[in-house]
Amino acid sequence: MSTINGVNYNNSVLTQSVLNIKTQLGQLQNELASGEKSTTYSGMGSQEGLAIAARAQISNISAFTDTITNVTTTINAATTALQSVSKISSDVENQVAQGPATLNSNGQTSAQQAAVAQLSSLVGILNSQSGNNFLFSGSATNTASVASATAILNGSGTQAGLTQLISQRNQADGTSGLGRLAITQPTATSVSVAEDAAGSVFGMKLSSVTSTLTGATVTGPTGSPAAISVALGATNPNNGDKLNLTFNLPDGTTTSVQLTATTTTPAPSGSFTIGATPTATATNLNAALTKAIGTTANTALLAASDVAAANNFFGEPPQRVSTNPTFTGTPASNNNTTPAPISGATLLSGASSGTSDSLSSGFSAGDTVTVNGQTLTFVASGASGANQVNVTDNVGTLLSKIDALSGATTPSSVSAGGAITLQNGSAANLSVTSNDSAALAALGLGGNIYTATSLVAGTPTNTVSWYTGATASGSARASLTARVDTGETVQYGIQANETAISSIIKNVALLAAVTTSSTNPNATNQVSELNQRVTANLSSSPGQQSITDIESDLSNAQITMKDASSRQSQQQTALQNLVTTTETVSSDQVASEILALQTSLQASYQTTSMLSQLTLTKYLPVG
Questions:
Q1: What pLDDT, in 10s, does the model give residues 26-74?
Q2: What residue segments make up the domains of the chain, in order of their start?
Q3: How far apart are CA 178 and CA 370, in angstroms?
């Protein structure tokens, strides 16, 4: 028997269609509300893998953009600072060239006074920051770039500053006298000029000698230490004949001393008088050379010494005059009938002859020994303090007193052969003189001055380090790098110890540190010699790094970042379009689709309603 099923609404195809339309309509409404195709990756479609990769690239571009912004800010700040450094350099150069050479009560010109303030400004600029990072410290961005202006000039605690190193260098190079040269007359008709010590880096060095002196034989520089010799002939030079000596100075410059033979008496400046005989002429030449070289030592050499000291101080590591020189006297014997070498036990005074172990010529009460300008007085008894010694004491006691005055940390001593070796403390030179020359000679000293011959590296304990940042092994620019694009970096590090910057602060500090005595007859020439060197050093030389070179490097980094930023902007636009196309919907299109589905859904509802009212009984026959 067959069964007739009724119309089942829930199972009908039309009902399933209505449900599908409602599902689509709900999805479209969600898309319209969120603007996205789906809340899950699986619902985004087959292109979602590309969109995910694009998002990662967009994130990288965003990081590059942040880096470019930060580096650009740093470079802009550094460029502004460099322009200020360059302006200070120009201002100092102009002030030195145009300012008067008049000295104030402190021994400085107006340009030098201005340099003191400008040095402080330079230090402030070089210690400037961008955010929390110091601009001129290379990779040590958390460390200030340079020491304070006060420390640079005057030192800090046990650390010497530029002023002290200049003073010591002046001593070693010869602030007076003949610039470490000895002028003698080996014979009655000859004159010799010789360096004082072989291998010394201080003083004036003989470079060359030329002569038109008639009949004279001129030789050198030869020997060790180097010397030149001028031997006059049997006849005098002629009026107008010339002798020219050229010297190398500590700062790398040269200077010349030229003398012209003249019959005028007294001889004008720069000349020597031709005497009645070659012997008299040689004497006049000796005196003229002594005067001319002495003047040069107190002007050109002094300025060159100042510059050399600044070069030493601003070097890395800083260099300074060896401050612990030693001096060994000649062997001396005591007063014994059978003389023996003196020792630390030898008495400072005793019988004029006999068997006592005393100096052959002893000290007396009232005698003095002067050590580096400090006086030690001999007394009969009851000596007290560092500045007195009993005449009844021995050589060992005297040496300990001398050490106390010189500041020597290593005790002076007497060798087995009777030669005294004196140690020095903090001074570049060691001077020991006495009013009793015979007694000093009995010690084997004879009133000697030891002058330093070498430089030593300064240490953090004894010398200020003006630059306190980091130093890159290669280019300073490479000390800081930033990745601004895939496979592309820029270098933007700057160090205050770069040549272009250090040259400026060095010469400004030099100008600020030097003082000149207004009572010195050579004062004007001293100032002039210093000014010429500072002006020349502040002027950029071919092949030497300039501030413009640093700015050019930074500009190239900015150009690289600008190009990278432009490319990234285009890439970001394309990538964002891909993401948008893949993951987002058009509100207009979705709205149109919703409207169509709503119309279809309404029609489906009407159809379903009509079908739901149909029954089989309406079609069965009545009765």
A1: 555 565 555 555 555 555 454 555 555 656 666 777 787 888 999 999 9
A2: 45-146+467-613, 177-297, 326-451
A3: 22
Q: Residue 56: which region, alpha, beta or left (left: phi > 0; alpha: psi -120 to 50)?
A: alpha
Rg of the chain in Å (alpha carbons) = 46
Calpha distance 313→319 (Å, rounded): 6
Average pLDDT estimate for 142-160: 96
Q: Select, from the ranges 323-327, 340-344, 445-449, the one with the highest average predicted confidence (pLDDT).
A: 340-344
**In the block, residue with structure tokens 């014997």:** 333
If you ran DSSP here, which 8-state letter would residue 160 be given?
B
Tell me the per-residue pLDDT of 69-122, one tens digit each, with 9 for 90 and over: 999 999 999 999 999 999 999 999 999 988 788 899 889 999 999 999 999 999
Q: What pLDDT does 432 receive?
A: 85
| DSSP type of residue 42 | G
Place of tokens 């010591």: 168
Q: Where are the beta strands (DSSP E) in 217-280?
A: 217-222, 227-231, 242-248, 254-262, 271-273
The per-type count for the chain, helices as H runs and strands as E runs, is 13, 22
Element (H, E) at 462: none
* Stated length of the chain: 623
Question: How far is residue 496 CA from its own chain's centroid?
Answer: 7
Q: Which CATH number fits domain 45-146+467-613: 1.10.287, 2.10.260, 3.40.50, 1.20.1330?
A: 1.20.1330
User: What is the edge-to-edge ordering of all strands in the sheet holding 254-262?
Assistant: 205-211, 242-248, 254-262, 271-273
CA angle 423, 200, 448 (to 5 degrees): 40
CA distance 413 to 3: 139
- DSSP label at 218? E
DSSP state of 618: G
Q: Whose CA is closest to 92, among 50, 120, 66, 69?
A: 120
Q: What is the DSSP letter of 268?
A: P
Q: What is the 3-state secondary structure (H, E, C) of 169-196?
A: HHHHHCCCCCCCEEEECCCCCEEEEEEC
Of 194, 163, 167, 191, nearest in space to 179 by CA: 194
Closest CA to 169 of 205, 202, 206: 202
DSSP run (H or E) holding 205:
strand 205-211
Residue 72 to residue 67: CA distance in whole angstroms: 8
Structure tokens at 235: 């006849």
- Beta bridge partners, 374, equal 371
- pLDDT for res 407: 84
Phi, psi of 224 (to 5 degrees): -145, 110
Collapsing DSSP states into helix, strand and coil, what is residue 425?
Answer: coil
Q: Looking at 161-175, 302-316, 352-366, 535-549, which range is the least confident one?
A: 352-366
pLDDT digits (tens, 9 = 90+) for 521-542: 999 999 999 999 999 999 877 7
Cα distance between residue 563 and residue 623, in whole Å: 95
Which string of DSSP letters, residue by residue, matches 127-154?
T-EETTEETTBTT-TTS-SB--HHHHHH
